[in-house]
Write a structure and sequence with these properties.
By secondary structure, this protein is α+β, with helices and mostly antiparallel strands. The chain is built from 1 helix and 11 strands. A hairpin with an 8-residue loop joins strand 10 and strand 11.
Length: 235
């Protein structure tokens, strides 16, 4: 009796090699897509983090600028009468805005705000950062006691408080007040071009602070109108 064996069909070596090639091409394509998606996601997260930090600063300024108005006295130089050798002399003082820094001169570097009662003042200021060759953001709050301006609780009476923004570097930052003179000062009432509600403009250029995000540069700007009306703040 003869037993016939049924032949088993299998894959040839060429078929296996073709299958492996297709599989490798598929895995390579999927891996490349995954890497690109992951990189794009990291970049998007980095941009969101940078924007979020700067948005925090903008929101802080916006809240103060809406509830207060521009303190035009902080953009004036004052004079005081002094007696010298029996004669009265007018001595020019620096900026009269704050005892913390009476010599603020560039109006683009700071924003001074005061409340409707003239008792609460907030000053935002941009200073040079020698370590990063950029800028850093500071602010200060003070109140009037009836005799003098004093620092609010938590603020150093001799210095501005800096805000640490770890995710970003400030390349440029400036303030712009509109109009440039107090529209509620009686001396300016007849001047039509300045009869506008005080408005604070903010302009900033920022970028990522880390080596993997420093290629992201964002330019931001906004304008904020005060909700305090008919408040004269000039001296």
């Amino acid at each position: 009796m003869k037993i016939k064996l049924k032949k088993q069909k299998g894959f040839t070596l060429i078929e296996v090699l073709i299958a492996l090639t297709i599989f490798v091409i598929f895995i390579t394509s999927v891996s490349s897509s995954y890497v690109n998606i992951a990189r794009n996601q990291r970049e998007a997260n980095a941009v969101r983090e940078i924007y979020s930090d700067m948005r925090y600063v903008f929101n802080m300024i916006e809240e103060e600028a809406r509830s207060k108005t521009i303190d035009y006295a902080c953009y004036q130089k004052g004079e005081v009468q002094r007696e010298y050798n029996g004669a009265d002399l007018l001595v020019e003082l620096g900026n009269l805005c704050s005892a913390v820094n009476p010599n603020i001169t560039n109006p683009e570097d700071y924003l001074a705000l005061i409340d409707a009662e003239g008792l609460e003042r907030t000053i935002f200021k941009i200073e040079d950062d020698p370590q990063t060759e950029g800028k850093f953001f500071t602010f200060y709050k003070e109140h009037y006691t009836g005799a003098a301006w004093e620092a609010d609780a938590g603020f150093n009476p001799n210095a501005f408080t800096s805000i640490e923004l770890k995710s970003l570097k400030i390349n440029a930052f400036k303030f712009e007040i509109t109009p440039s003179v107090d529209p509620f000062d009686p001396r300016n009432v007849a001047c039509g071009p300045v009869q506008f509600q005080p408005q604070s403009g903010i302009y900033a250029s920022i970028q990522g602070a880390r080596t993997d995000t420093d290629q992201f540069v964002l330019n931001l700007q906004t304008s904020i109108s005060s909700r305090v009306y008919n408040k004269k703040t000039t001296l």
